[in-house]
Amino acid sequence: RIPDHACSEPPMQARRLLSAGFDMDDDVDTDTEDQTPDDVEAQGHQAATTTRPQDTGPPKASQSQLRTEFGFCIHENIYFLPCTEPPSEEGPNHYFSIEDQYVYCPFARDFGPFNLGVVLRFCELMEEKRAEFPSRKIILHCPMEPEKCTNVAFLLGSFLIQSLDKSDGEAASVFNAISSHQQGIFLPYRDATNRPREFGLSLESCFQALRRAKSLGWTRLDDEL
User: Which intervals carry biased composition (Acidic residues) (predicted)?
Assistant: First the structure.
């Protein structure tokens, strides 16, 4: 008979799989001799990028509606354009980048997300641009790099929630559709260490947290601290 204290905690490999989002009843090889830290990191990436079904939010747009010559439509005249080279700013549309304006300073191998102060400043920036260019397409472009695309998507989704009062499900559905259209464009966030990632933080989870913070009044700019 196995002593009761021997069952109080799963073995190390089981804890890694549980933290990566795996069900121990799944058909997963838990032999530590066959799995490396890189294997665990890859499994964590797969689990982190899997999102639960949304109860709210508009239906996903078709690929022909989603991607246009101006990029991915986020909301009305607001577009997200990942590109290999900066687009020409000539013409009637307003192109801009935030690459030099908002820079995430990593502790280790982390690359985001931005803090709440950056989120609120970005929302103010977008509100100013909507007021300045009400009848023009506002196109936010960024380099075709997954880390930078993820950070821009996080800020745009935060703008949908904070300024346009969209739900976290509606914000997530926009970027889930983009991710389905262009595989690998977004990455899950990771912890601030140099060790292999054993779990990931999805954009959807970030949007849920921001929506919760907004409901608690933590994102109101007119409150005195």
Answer: 23-41
